[in-house]
Amino acid sequence: MAQRKSAIDQRSENRHKETSKRKNLSKRLVKESIDFDQIIASSDPQTIFNAMWEQLDKRLSENKHFQGYLSYVEGYNEAVNCCQNYIEDKDIAIGFPKLIVTSYRPKSFRNKVTFSEKKQILDFYLYWMDSIASKAYEITITDLMLSLIFHSAILRKPVLQTIISCISDKSLTIESIFELPVVTLIIDDDSYHTNTYSNSKAVHEVKVFLSPLTSYLIKLYVKGNETRKLKSSTDVQNLYQMLKMTKSLSQNHLSMTLEEFLIGAVYVLEDYLFLDLPEHTWYLLLGLETTYGLSIANWQSLIFSISHKPTTKIAINIECHKDVAVEPKKGNPTITVEIAKLLKTTKDGKTSMARFTIGLKQLYERLLTNNAPLSELAIVGWLLTKTVTSKKVSSMRTHSGGITNRWLSLTQGVAFEDHTEEDYIQLYSELIELGKSKDAQNAIATNIDEIHAYLVNHHGIEPIAPFSSTKRAHHRTGYLSETMFQAILNNADNLEMTKDEIEAVKLALILGQRCGLRIGEIVKIRLKDVAITSAYLEVRNNKYGNNKTGSALRRTLLEQLLTNSEMSFFKRVELRRSKSKGDTLIANQAGMAYRASDLSKTISQLIKTTTGLSHLTTHHLRHSFLTNFQLMSFLYDKANAFNGHQCSQTLKDLLPYDEDKSCKILAYIETSLQYKKIYALAGVAGHASPSTTFESYVHLTDIQIGLLLWHMDYHLTSKHHELISIPRRLKKQLAATPTAVNDYLLNKLKLKPLPKPKHSKRLKRADKKSTKPKRYSFDEVRQTLEVHNREEDFKEKMDVYKLDQNTFEMWLENARRLRNDSAFKTTHGNSRLFASDDNRSLLPVLDRYAEDNHMLMQMTNKFRDLYKIKDNREPMLQFVGLTLTNSQYYKNHISFNEALDLYSYIQILRQLVLKKNINLKIYHYAQAKDDDKKEWQPVMKLLASSQIKNCNVADKLNGNVYKKKIRAELSLSSQTEQTRLNNREKSNLPIKQWTVRTLQIFCHYAFIMIGQRINLGDHKP
After folding, report:
1. What is the overall mean pLDDT for the chain?
2. What is the pLDDT of residue 231?
3. In the prediction, which pLDDT does 102 show?
4. How far apart are CA 181 and CA 216, in angstroms?
5. CA 831 vs CA 811, 824, 848, 890, 1021: distances in Å
6. How far is 444 from 446, CA to CA, in rounded Å?
7. Per-residue pLDDT tens digits for 943-991
8. Which of 148, 418, 439, 574 is deepest in the core (most CB within 10 A)?
9. How many C-alpha atoms does 168 have within 13 Å on its Cβ side?
């Protein structure tokens, strides 16, 4: 008898069936309502599509299967996806609606405390404020706890507990950031840690901004207890219980728990002290929602506009694509055996921990001396750290046995220095999967976390989130101010890259910092995703990649978010790319889209180099955009009156826009309703919920709260003035302006600012025009000369590429030389570089396949690098000249009659292309004289025998063998050669080789750009 399904399983199955039915119905309605053939044939396809979509939407909303909101959303989103697939397949140039993203607001805290309890808390607050005004009153630790709650809005128990403990043990240091009191705390809770380590342990560091009144009361308390040993309890729960017991018999008794008391304090802060905070900020203060602040080092960068001095120099010459693979350091396969030998017992059955530790240290020193790979240093170094806590060799066997062999086997040849967070996650996940059970996998994960932490602390690699379930997860907070960002952009111009690659890096930086786009979203933006007016771009799924979630499918407002200069730069790149190969907004010279990981590594290293902050990565551009947007919303909210406080202006200086531009952006994107502003922020982030945005990306809410605390009216009486030693001359002023007490208290506190790091340097912005000569790519040459050749207005192109008249005229003159100079013609007067019937062209025809064009780009990069070395320049100029003067338009090879010319030519060529791609045909070798053969032997030794073909055709006349002079033909194999050979294998016309004209094309463009430096001598055709 078949087992009956449970009610839960039955309901789940029914829901699945209903969902499938609604999706199929939605697809059917799309087919019935939207005629894509009519849209394609229309002169205004967007208008036709919009009208059809409106009818479809109406049918969806009226259909009985989509009457509920969630079922309607389900059907609507399915229709959007269905339309997108068809539009993408048919390549129809129209936009389509965004997906509807559903989210849920957090559960309200306001119903957790009754009205009578709120009144109790307010009455208690008034009673307490009256009590501390007494002249005979001595400030206690309980008073400080209450001031922290009511005057500084410290409503999270772990934060409150940490401050009280630090006050008690006299370790609390109050500093100032932008003229606001602040303390730095290490919170002992279960939340994420934030780029901070204490004794190799990940910790959760926070900046807590205090009100001036609370700060002054702490100073009074500490001063009054300097000589006394404190005996009072510092547990906030006990302090609150004692407070309840003290007040239980009075009319100001407290009947609620500490958690309820902290929630109830919101009403005192809001309704009596008039601390006007957005609703979501109260959730943050209560710990119901989370957000994370910046590390000390990041704050120092903002305050002093400095770059921290990195412990190791990071190279600035980074390449997006490594043309020549860098061989990883070879590992030593005997390391596992050596560690096992150290753990092995001796003849007497014993081995001491001391002997094992000495042997392990010697092994580690040897690895350091031999410059061993990081994977080996990591495992041995980690085992050394375990010797500190392990007392028995048996414990070390357990530690080593669980990870050593697996680690060394899987990490052999891994270049840890070049890995990104994603690379580490993939590698470690594979290691963890080797565990046969959940417990075994978690044990491996724990070891990996410790080994990676060792690498972070001792070798400066990127920290990542822990894998073990017992570890605190890492939360990578970080922020780039406008000064920092401009310095990074300035340094991008110094990268040793092609112009296309530098533009790709700079555009990715701009789109990340200004629009919050992820690097994966940036590399897959297609030209057709950008509006015709360049006012916005669509972030959509396409063949280059999908977005993380449905909410990430969004429209990014370029016209609003980019500055004027950045908008001009964007249009310039877009225009250049629209005339080039490939369909993505950023691509290399061959039109190929960049890999997100390659671009991310380059940008991350550029950011680290410029700022000196090793924890900052490409993704922090997105953090900075969202932090800036939220900060802008706060600073220009008319409900917030900052009364000219220095902090408000300093925070505005962190932003990229002036007040007028900021207000226009906010008016365009936000709503006037306060509670909806956070949803606008989530919308531009591509998040379904503001909780995600604040938890991961917004990092300056702490100082915003500190700034609002500054403007709080404490309702101080003349008795309170006596307590805090207000002089008589200021009492009248304070009566008229109560908040002025904060200025007085801050002056009395004499707080020291956050200290400047010992090793740092000022960040440099590109304020002046660079005197560095401009670098151009073949793309600029091709597009400007093509427009000129068509007799169109090429001035626009010159403006787009910022090409000066002298450079253009030099290119044009060199291009005409290639057509007209006798050096580039045969003995019959025919052009070596152009077809006989082509009387107009100035440029060569590019190779047919993208792979071969990619080889052209690689040659360009290597040529530039080699040309920087002075001794290389003359041979390289000769290389270009020899290529062009020994070519023929209808042949893919280059002819050589002199062995010495070919020898020097191959020496250069081997540095530009892979040696295996060079082919050589030698003619008349068998018939040549011995002296001639001797001259050519060094040439033939440069290449493998498989790359050389001897063409020995005996020439006999009347029985006499005529001696001939050796000649050679050099060519390059196509990067698609193997595919072509395979395709023609069974053909009637099989081929043995597939060559390309990449060399001739490269040298043609090179001559246009630097031909005036090449001495062709008395070349004869």
Report:
1. 82
2. 54
3. 61
4. 10
5. 19, 6, 22, 10, 10
6. 5
7. 988 899 888 755 444 445 556 889 999 999 888 877 777 776 666 666 6
8. 148
9. 18
Q: How far apart are CA 981 and CA 906, in angstroms?
A: 26
| Contact (Cβ atoms closer than 8 angstroms) between residue 529 and residue 540 | yes
Q: Which residues contact 386 (CB under 8 A, 6 or more apart)?
A: 395, 396, 399
- The 3-state DSSP composition of the chain as helix, strand, coil percent (nearest 5) reads 55, 10, 40
| pLDDT tens for each residue of 620-666 | 999 999 999 999 999 998 877 777 788 999 999 999 999 999 999 99
Helix (H, G, I), strand (E, B) or coil at 716: coil
Query: β-strand 536-539 against 306-308: which pairing, if any?
Result: unpaired
Paired tokens of 105: 């607001």
433: left (phi over 0), alpha (psi -120 to 50) or beta: alpha
Q: Would you call 412 exposed, middle or buried from its count of C-beta atoms within 10 A (0-12, 13-18, 19+)?
A: middle
Is residue 1 pLDDT above 50, yes or no?
A: no
- The Cα–Cα gap between 94 and 744 comes to 62
Distances in Å between the Cα of 63 and the Cα atoms of 35, 75, 518, 944, 952 are 20, 10, 38, 74, 83
User: Would you call 623 helix, strand, or coil by DSSP?
Assistant: helix
Q: Which residue has the higher pLDDT, 108 or 202?
A: 108
> Which amino acid is it at 103?
S
3-state class (DSSP) for residue 186: strand
Return the axis-axis angle of helices 353-369 and 374-389, rounded to nearest 10°. Answer: 160
Strands 918-923, 948-951: pairing kind = parallel
Whether 323 has a pLDDT exceeding 50, the answer reads no
Measure the CA dihedral 958/959/965/971, to 10°: 100
* 571 closest CA partner among 520, 503, 479: 503
CB atoms within 10 A of CB 4: 8
What's the one-letter identity of residue 897? N
Helix (H) or strand (E) segment spanning residue 955: none
Q: What angle do CA 449, 455, 457 make, to 5 degrees?
A: 100
pLDDT at 201: 65
Q: Which residue matches tokens 């934060």?
A: 159
Give the number of other Cβ atoms within 10 Å of residue 523's Cβ: 24
Give me Rg for the CA atoms of the chain.
Answer: 36
* Eight-state DSSP code of residue 890: T
Distance of CA 787 to the CA centre of its chain: 37
Query: Three-state SS for 522?
Result: helix
More confident residue, 1017 or 222: 222
What average pLDDT score do residues 491-505 get? 83
162 within 8 A of 186, measured Cβ to Cβ = yes
Are the CB atoms for 926 and 952 separated by under 8 Å? yes
Closest CA to 577 of 777, 788, 770, 774: 777
CA gap 268, 122 in Å, rounded: 6
Helices (DSSP H) in 965-1019: which residue ranges?
Answer: 977-983, 998-1010
Amino acid making up residue 266: V
Of 964, 947, 965, 948, nearest to 956 by C-alpha is 964
Give the tens place of pLDDT for each residue, 85-124.
Answer: 788 777 777 776 766 766 556 677 788 888 888 888 998 9
Give the list of residues 6+ apart from residue 83 with CB closer than 8 angstroms, or none: 30, 34, 53, 96
Q: For position 45, what pLDDT does the model report?
A: 85
Q: Does residue 315 register a pLDDT over 50? A: no
Question: Residues with Cβ < 8 Å from 187, sequence gap 6 or more?
Answer: 158, 159, 162, 204, 205, 206
Rounded to 5 degrees, φ, ψ at 474 are -90, 140
Give residue 456's pLDDT. Answer: 84
CA neighbours closer than 13 Å in the CB half-sphere of residue 106: 21
State the Cα–Cα distance between residues 250 and 247, nearest whole angstrom.
5
Do 1000 and 876 touch, CB atoms closer than 8 A? no
| 225 sits in which H/E element | none
